[in-house]
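Q: Please design a sequence for this.
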């Protein structure tokens, strides 16, 4: 589609259409002859995420410019964006393998001096992710430390 430029000379509200979210919004400050004095870039997706952005934006080699940025979307555009996000989330969840950990133990009385725990992992541990294995290891380490503290008392 190519890049588009819009100009304004006055203060106040200024609206213009965007053709893509992938390109940054470039704001240029020009003198009376049209020579560029300064510029700044704003990530378009940041505006979408915040929905309304009221901030002072630093211009290169100059001071700041106060801008209030907002996307005004139609209902169809909102639905399309929501569908794209949901689709991306579904794809991400499909890539993450489902992790099922079975843990069967015996009931532990609080006053017991030892912790007679029986672990049965029925082949599931081989299929679990490393983060779950680390969590199980940390849990077992915590139980061992609890057992040591109780035997000291």
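A: Design:
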């Amino acid at each position: 589609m190519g890049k588009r430029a819009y100009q304004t000379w006055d203060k106040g509200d200024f609206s213009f259409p965007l053709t893509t979210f992938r390109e940054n919004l470039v704001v240029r400050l020009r003198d009376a002859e049209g020579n560029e004095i300064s510029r700044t870039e704003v990530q378009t997706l940041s505006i979408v995420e915040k929905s309304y952005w009221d901030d002072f934006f630093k211009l290169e080699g100059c001071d700041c410019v106060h801008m209030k940025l907002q996307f005004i979307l139609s209902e169809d555009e909102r639905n399309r964006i929501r569908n794209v996000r949901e689709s991306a989330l579904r794809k991400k969840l499909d890539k993450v393998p489902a992790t099922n950990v079975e843990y069967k133990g015996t009931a532990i009385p609080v006053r017991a001096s030892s912790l007679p725990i029986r672990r049965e992992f029925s082949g599931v541990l081989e299929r679990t992710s490393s983060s779950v294995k680390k969590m199980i290891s940390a849990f077992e380490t915590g139980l061992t430390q609890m057992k040591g503290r109780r035997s000291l008392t």
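Q: Thanks. Anything notable?
A: Residues 112-125 have pLDDT under 50 and may be disordered. Residues 112 and 150 are 9 Å apart (CA to CA).
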